[in-house]
Amino acid sequence: MTYNDVYAAWQADPEAFWMEAARAIDWDVAPTKALTDKGGDLYEWFADGMVNTCWNAVDRHVEAGHGQRIAIIHDSPITETVHKITYAELQTRVARLAGALRAKGIEQGDRVIIYMPMVPEALEAMLACARIGAIHSVVFGGFAANELAVRIDDCQPKAIIAASCGLEPGRVVHYKPLVDGAIGIAKHKPEFCVILQREQEVAHLEPGRDVDWHEFQSGVEPADCVPVPGNHPSYILYTSGTTGAPKGVVRHTGGHLVALNWSMKNIYGVNPGEVFWAASDVGWVVGHSYICYGPLIHGNTTIVFEGKPVGTPDAGTFWRVIADHKVASFFTAPTAIRAVKREDPKGEMIADYDLSSLRALYLAGERADPDTIEWAQRALKVPVIDHWWQTETGWSIAANPMGIEALPVKIGSPSVAMPGYDVQILDEGGRPMAPGELGAIAVKLPLPPGTLPTLWNAEDRFRKSYLTTFPGYYETGDAGMIDADGYLYIMARTDDVINVAGHRLSTGAMEEVLASHTDVAECAVIGVSDDLKGQMPLGFLCLNKGCNRPHGEIVAEVVKLVRDRIGPVAAFKLAVVVDRLPKTRSGKILRATMVKIADGQDFKLPATIDDPAILDEIRAALRTIGYAKA
Ligand code: COA
Ligand code: AMP
């Protein structure tokens, strides 16, 4: 079957297509239908089936006789250790942890926040929740206590599972004090915290609230898998929106299982038993879908990598891991390849390793620039596949489906729409545009299985964020075009989300933090181009009248404020004081024009600009801080 055949089969009968894909999942009660139209543009998948995610990701492989197959390889160049866990061991560990959670009162539907570094216990915690129908929400370790507190208040967890620390090159990240700080700030208080004490740092446990990971599990009755309805939320994952309040993307159980399982073979081209590696973090959607769930549901071996592309110990780390563990399919963000390329421009370190197991490199999370793709193609001599997706969708909207057919690669395009996605380019009035024309990228409803059915406790926000601009469509927030061959091109975000080192961040959230500084009257944050990270945030500050403190001091304070409130992941290091911000006559800040000035690009003077002279002031201010592109 070709890609066109598969896509046409889905178009002809989506219900039959997804019911067929659902047969690859073990159901306790098989669904009688795939799609439920709930009315008002809300949809659910496999709602009347009964199923358990952990059973499908772990137990069924043991039952099928694959208990000795490696499920997880923890490769940690930071601690210089490698551990392997078989599916049988994983089953024992997860059943025990699930039993301990249940013994402490965690029941189906309860929320559990997981705040952990890249250790296998993070996956075990996710799977243990899934085993008993608890809803997990994993929070990325690079977020500060305040961000964790916001998530605690939004999803109201009964428990938090955390590690004592994370390990960044040259720095121990003190997770436990961050957890304590977050609980202190949050209005909602979890009943208990389970703390994995790592040998690099033993954290203080709060008597009566905190329990040690091992002690908590000793002597408990292991828990069996609890079947849940197909529309039971398996997890909530918060992602950046336009304001400081993150959006709680909900993932339903049935569609998640079906879509991820389908994607492993059809998109990533791997067979059960092969090694699949996504070098990301469990705190991001890539980590949920392709470090934890996808590979395990499909019976692959997954790698939990605790390291960086460079510096742990060198730019050959990726190639060492691929060679050591015979990785068949490798997935990372373009920024990681750019980091390697910068250290080893000729890719000379690749020659030290046997990469014969590798069949393809997949890139996502940000725009893959042609230089990076071409470098990787030359260096690795395997197809380099750009694919496009979002936290909201949980799996690719557009990709080159290597397991169906390797389509010709067009550099600069993440290839074509996957079955389930009717992708269209719309103009401002919501009318479809011709091939080659730039517009908003939207997906005709319903979205396929595995995508978000709503936002946690925020249906109105879900509608406003995604369903209102183009009735009948999901608004992706990306702009781009489709060429005459159906290849998509993703050009820019239509909102104020920026992408820093493959991490999705909200400039609006950073502006809220800057505005809270006592000397700041007004501010703007934009995303400027960065050779390594793709984009970097840059802040503009207008100070209160009469404030004559040194600008450098105020800039240092706001940089610290963003790090303390949002976290190091925001990578907010650049800010400049200006007298005024360029605005339209109606008072809208001209952020896009500021980006062009900062990036040193030509631009058309906006017709609605209030006072063009401000643009020269912006340029001059950027030069005073040595921002060379301005
Ligand atoms: N816990 C705590 N802190 C973290 C963290 C974590 N899990 N991950 C990153 N941070 C910190 C970093 O230590 C850094 O802190 P610093 O300001 O003290 O140096 C800060 O957050 C910014 O991190 P990052 O933007 O990742 O920059 P970096 O210089 O550490 O690394 C790359 C740059 C390109 C090597 C790195 O971003 C990378 O490997 N990216 C891959 C992208 C990826 O995994 N994307 C996920 C989607 S596929
Ligand atoms: P996240 O939700 O963190 O996965 O970020 C999703 C956003 O990252 C998308 O809306 C895009 O703006 C961007 N993105 C992800 N993958 C790609 C890609 N392959 N090409 C261009 N942009 C991408």
Can you give a write-up of this model?
The protein has 630 residues and is of the alpha/beta class. Among the domains are: 86-226, Rossmann fold (3-Layer(aba) Sandwich), CATH 3.40.50.980; 501-624, GMP Synthetase, Chain A, domain 3 (2-Layer Sandwich), CATH 3.30.300. 32% of the residues lie in helices and 24% in strands. It is built from 18 helices and 31 strands. The protein has a seven-stranded mixed β-sheet, sandwiched between helices. Strand 29 and strand 30 (534-543) form a beta hairpin. Helix 6 (145-155) crosses helix 7 (175-185). The N and C termini lie far apart (52 Å). 53% of the residues are buried. The model has no long low-confidence stretch (mean pLDDT 96). Coenzyme A is lined by residues 141-142, 166, 168, 173, 280-281, 284, 286, 308-309, 333, 335-336, 339, 365, 500-503, 533, 568-569, 571. Coenzyme A (COA) binds next to strand 9 and helix 12.
